[in-house]
Design goal:
4-stranded mixed beta sheet; 8 helices; alpha+beta
Length: 298
């Protein structure tokens, strides 16, 4: 004997903060605009490091675009064709971005190796000016993001990301000064490799984490066995929790289906609601489908 739940516990993403959304969009536009300046300028002054930093800014612009989409998509309700809404789209976009960036990193590494084999002259003074403007651009974007709601994880993550990005611009500025005063050209491909590593690590993590969600793996920080043990310990009338499936539609939309054996006295809607509420409060599982079974069920 089994009882199917008649309702589901939902905790969908709340209404987007319009101020945060505007700040994210403004930051993305500024970053994307100067990205082209740095890439074109890098090609002009013959600096791979500048091109690499421009690509780094491209990763920033895409990250901001994903963050903006996260705010935007939160306002779209689910419908009959997309019953969970459109949260998964931002995960798909993240995977495509990460995979594309890995290909770009490969190109930067090849260019740097070729520059080691065949050194070329770099215009140090012009490289310095372009990199300095890039640093100012990062600081402006950081100020815009920092003025947003730092209690929001989406906004806080974008802000911290740009705080770290200033290091790339500072490194390129240092390289330009070294080239201008010493003429030591190998610093340019060395810096480009350093920036490529920074981009590559972030792109790999983005691809791996988004692929894990797309493949409906168990979300990071969740352990099925730990949840099973906790449920059986907390609810003494649940003697066997099994057939557990745990996955995520998006980072903040964790789903679970499970079966649990109990006695006839506890096969009711009250038990269903109590277990679902506990899973949400204790384990942050937002959507639970629970099937209760009697002790003699097979």
């Amino acid at each position: 004997m089994s009882v199917q739940p008649i309702s589901h516990h939902h905790n969908h993403i709340g209404q987007a903060n319009k101020s945060n959304k505007r700040k994210i969009m403004l930051a993305a536009i500024i970053t994307a605009s100067y990205m082209m300046v740095e890439i074109i300028g890098g090609l002009w002054v013959n600096s791979i490091a500048l091109v690499a930093d421009g690509v780094h800014m491209m990763t920033d612009a895409m990250a901001l675009g994903i963050a903006w989409w996260g705010y935007h998509i939160a306002q779209k309700p689910a419908n009959e064709r997309m019953t969970f809404g459109y949260q998964r789209f931002q995960i798909l976009t993240a995977f495509i971005n990460g995979f594309t960036l890995l290909l770009i990193v490969g190109g930067i590494v090849i260019m740097a190796v070729m520059r080691f084999i065949e050194p070329q002259e770099v215009m140090g003074k012009e490289m310095f000016v372009i990199a300095l403007i890039g640093l100012l651009n990062n600081l402006i974007v950081f100020w815009i993001l920092h003025s947003g709601d730092q209690h929001n994880m989406n906004m806080r993550g974008a802000t911290l990301h740009f705080l770290g990005d200033t290091l790339g611009s500072v490194a390129v500025i240092g390289g330009a000064i070294l080239i201008y005063y010493t003429g030591w050209m190998p610093i340019d491909p060395i810096l480009s490799l350093l920036i490529a590593v920074i981009i590559g690590v972030g792109a790999y993590r983005l691809s791996r984490e988004s692929a894990h969600i797309l493949l409906e793996g168990v979300p990071a920080g969740y352990e099925i066995q730990a949840i099973k043990t906790d449920l059986e310990k907390h609810f003494t009338f649940l003697t066997c929790v099994h057939h557990i499936h745990l996955w995520a539609i998006a980072e903040e939309q964790v789903m679970m289906t499970l079966h649990a054996k109990t006695d006839l006295q506890h096969i009711n809607d009250e038990t269903l609601s109590e277990v679902k509420q506990y899973l949400f409060d204790t384990h942050k599982v937002h959507h639970v489908t629970l099937q209760l079974e009697t002790e003699i069920s097979v």
